[in-house]
Design brief:
alpha+beta, 27% helix, 34% strand, YCII-related domain-containing protein, Dimeric_a/b-barrel
């Protein structure tokens, strides 16, 4: 099962990570990569570009956006055996980085179709 684990900007000003936290996060990422669990991870640029299609017309709006307080700022795509395992990985992540918020959502794709 694949899950997208996303961290959001809760609006609280956070202090930059120190060397110890970066080393611990590096070890966590290396462990997940070696185990074949981590498929992709990264931080996201603030704002980005919003695309909207309506009535056959496509419009683009460059960020940042006023409602960016809850924007996704980082992600990890993992392949695990269960939602519970994804939750445990997310708990470990927050034990390393400290306070924050996020979302865990199962990812569906062609391999999830019946008979695949």
């Amino acid at each position: 099962m694949r899950f997208m684990m996303m961290t959001t900007d809760d609006g609280d000003q956070q202090t930059p990570p120190d060397e110890a936290m970066m080393a611990e996060m590096g070890a966590f990422i290396a462990e997940m990569s070696a185990a074949g669990v981590l498929l992709a991870t990264g931080g996201l640029e603030p704002g980005g570009t919003r695309i909207k299609a309506s009535g056959g017309k496509v419009t683009l709006t460059d960020g940042p956006f006023a409602e960016a307080k809850e924007a996704v700022v980082g992600f990890a795509l993992v392949e695990v055996r269960s939602r519970e395992e994804a939750i445990e990985l997310s708990k470990r992540f927050f034990q390393i980085v400290g306070d924050g918020e996020g979302t865990i959502q199962q990812v569906f794709g062609p391999d999830d179709a019946p008979g695949a």
